[in-house]
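thought: fold this chain, then report.
action: predict
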Amino acid sequence: MIKDGDKSNPAGFFRNWDFHSQRGRRASLSGRGPGHGVVQPFNGMGPKAQFGLHAHSGQRGFILALLLGMMTIMGIFLMKAVPSVIVEVQRGAEAELIFRGEAMARGIRLYQAKTGTYPKRLEDLMKVRPPVLRKLYRDPMTENGEWDLVTAVAAGASGNKTGLPIAGVRSHSQRDSIKMYRGRTIYSDWVFSAADNILGLPGTGIPAVLKSGSSTTTSPNVGKK
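observation:
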């Protein structure tokens, strides 16, 4: 039996060929052929893949905008928080200065009570037994940590205090303080003296050099009638 599509049947073969070719022409002319209305991408991706790519790009843009907004908000909060952090750090340094200064003054006071004289070097405080100081504290307000020595007698014109009896210490820093210490608001004015009374308050036991810069020598007739 000879089928229409068999090439051995010329009449049937050409009839089927003509039918399919005419159907393809009608579909292309009517715009309903394969691929109608779809712009084929150059990379070979289909419509679903292209939609996913656009959605992914939009999601990345949203995340980037969200991160930028969060960074801006964090920057504003940091700008507001930095001054308060600086103040808290300064308050902590002031508390440490008071603790160390008063510890040094207390050590000098105990040294004077044990030996009958003031030390001529701060290192002398660590030589007595039992010890009068846990350790030799340093000035927390300066980089080198060196104290400004408060001597029981006035220094000479050169200002050299080497070998003079040390009655207290104070900071070399000239910065203004947040806290007021004994009515003073400059760190170098915070005097930690061993010549205070037993309550640790400035009193009549402060050497005259701490008040006026003069010698501590007093007249033996003072207080006699």
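thought: worth noting. The longest strand covers residues 176-181.
final: tokens above.
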